[in-house]
Amino acid sequence: MSKNPPSSVLRVLIALLAVLCLLIVVHVAVVNTPIKTLLNLQNIVTGQPRVPNKSPKVQGFTKPEFGHMTSAFQKLFDQGLEVGAQLAVYHKGELVVDLWGGVARVNNKDYQFGRDEEPMTFKESLLLYLKPRELVNAKLQEWFAAFRYVKSFFVPPPAAPPTCDGADNQVCQKTSTSTGSVVGYIQWFFGGASLDDFGASLKRGYLPLTGDSLIPLFSCSKVAESAVISDLASAKKFSLDDKISKHWPNFGSKGKEDIKIEDLMRHQAGLVYPDSMLTIKKLSNPDLLYAQLAEEQGVNWKFDVSNADKQMYHPITRGIYASGLVYNVMGVELGSYFRNEIALKHGLDMYLGIGPEDFEREKIVQTETPVLPQFFKYILQYLLGGLVPFSSRSKILMMGNTFDTLLDFEASIVLGFLRKTFQGKWYLNYSALFGILNAVEDLDSISSINKPVLLSLENLPSANGLSNARSMSKLGDLLRTGAVGGEAGKITDERHMDHGIGYEIAFTDGGYGHDRFYVDGLFGWKGWAGMAGGVLQWNEELELAFAYNTVLPYGRVGKPRGIYLMKELVNGLNKKP
């Protein structure tokens, strides 16, 4: 007698159990593997140059009383948690920590075809990303690279590449060059770039990171953006409690009538995403852009100022609307105002939109592609989110490294999305996702910020800043003392549930986050942090300004490396006699 076939429900349960078992196996395989090792694994699979294995020695200086920060920073490299990073601290108006270490890929120089250290022009860099032939060529190069790496398992490997112990201009990793007849024909057809050189500029090797290197800031840019708004408010160009429509013609329509400047800066304007994606062409035409945003764009959902759902992080659009305000008041884009009225006046090597001359002069480095195997450390944590606390979760899942253990609010993000869906507030989830994925053309991933066309825009200040930690911390100190922005922009609102970030957070009327890391036990700090992991904060009571930036993104709301360094800084300061 034959057995009855399993029911559909049973089949689903078996399938879910199989998926869970697979997740557990993969989790165990990667859980205590350093992210730098996982990055190299990913680079091998995708045909990218590998990061040198040797742990670099941190360089720079510290004042004697802050010497412990050198060993704290070095620990991140020794544990394989960094590729290239910078750290800087101001205390009582003096630079007391200025450290850097590791390697990075330079974004605006071509290190292949015998052209070491020969700068690419700004136009060439733009074409590298925009020209269809180059894009097709790059895709073919990826295919050929993947084939070569598969082949490398069956043939002896080439000689070891040079290390990063030499001069600053030494290439740490290069690929071999060979051109056969078929490859030569394809090379000619696609414009002369050898496929075996695979992407002279898209697949660059690693060079030593320096203290002067400019790293993408991501949302740390919002601090500079807020500095502009606070500076103009301090100069009485407008008041932060003014309605935006008072200074921006035709803005007061389609639900935007009562939105104040402080509402926008506190992420309480309901303008998280545009109805249609903003193209590069439109962003390059401010008159057209701001007229359309004023007249045609409505709020993403209806709410009043007392509504508990009014706050949602505007990851991209806050800066675009803030730039529209500045453009209508001052006649220039926000990025241009910042560069001329703040950065140059105070000696900051920082940009919110970098022009062609500066692009070719500066040493701009790339943010790495997110390390996909790293997310296998998080999936099971998301499934346990809200059920198992941080300490127990790290034990259950064998999380030997606390840097990879999600904070409780992070692990509960998925449950929060589900909860809002079942409550009929799906539009909040929709807004949070589209605020990132559907805001700006070509800005569709973390590493896409490396594109020169995006770095050049002066009206994308929420995301496309460039700087080094030294200038970041100096800006923080200028804001702490009121040398920039005066006292404007410092009034802190109460904490509200932020449906984009996933927990309660308070912002000042100028847009600075207040106690962004209170969940980590850090209080009295203002500023913000970036998607890749960078942190820019200052503390008026401790008279500190802290800046950390990295080329290796974790893509988390929590910033474990930056938080660790901030705690080391505060603990060391408390131990001083």
For the record, give the distance between the C-alpha atoms at the N and C termini, rounded to a whole number: 85 Å
Mean of all residue-level pLDDT scores? 82
Q: Return residue spans where pLDDT drops below 50 for at least 5 consecutive residues.
A: 110-136, 151-203
The value of Rg in angstroms is: 24 Å
**Proportion in β-strands:** 5-15%
Count of helical stretches: 21
Q: In total, how many beta strands?
A: 15
Protein name: Beta-lactamase-related domain-containing protein
Domain Beta-lactamase-related: 199-554
InterPro entries: Beta-lactam-related, Beta-lactam/transpept-like, Beta-lactamase/esterase
Pfam families: Beta-lactamase
Task: Describe what you observe in this structure.
By secondary structure, the chain is an alpha+beta fold. The protein contains 21 helices and 15 strands. The chain has helices spanning 8-30, 35-46, 68-78, 122-130, 132-152, 181-189, 221-234, 261-265, 280-283, 286-296, 317-330, 334-346, 356-361, 379-384, 390-396, 408-411, 413-422, 426-437, 452-455, 469-481, 560-575, and strands at 59-62, 84-91, 94-104, 109-110, 118-119, 207-208, 215-216, 350-352, 465-467, 496-498, 503-507, 513-514, 525-529, 535-539, 544-550. The strands form 3 sheets. Strands 1, 2, 3, 6, 10, 11, 12, 13, 14 and 15 form a 10-stranded antiparallel sheet that branches. A hairpin with a 7-residue loop joins strand 4 and strand 5. The model is unreliable at 110-136 and 151-203 (pLDDT under 50).
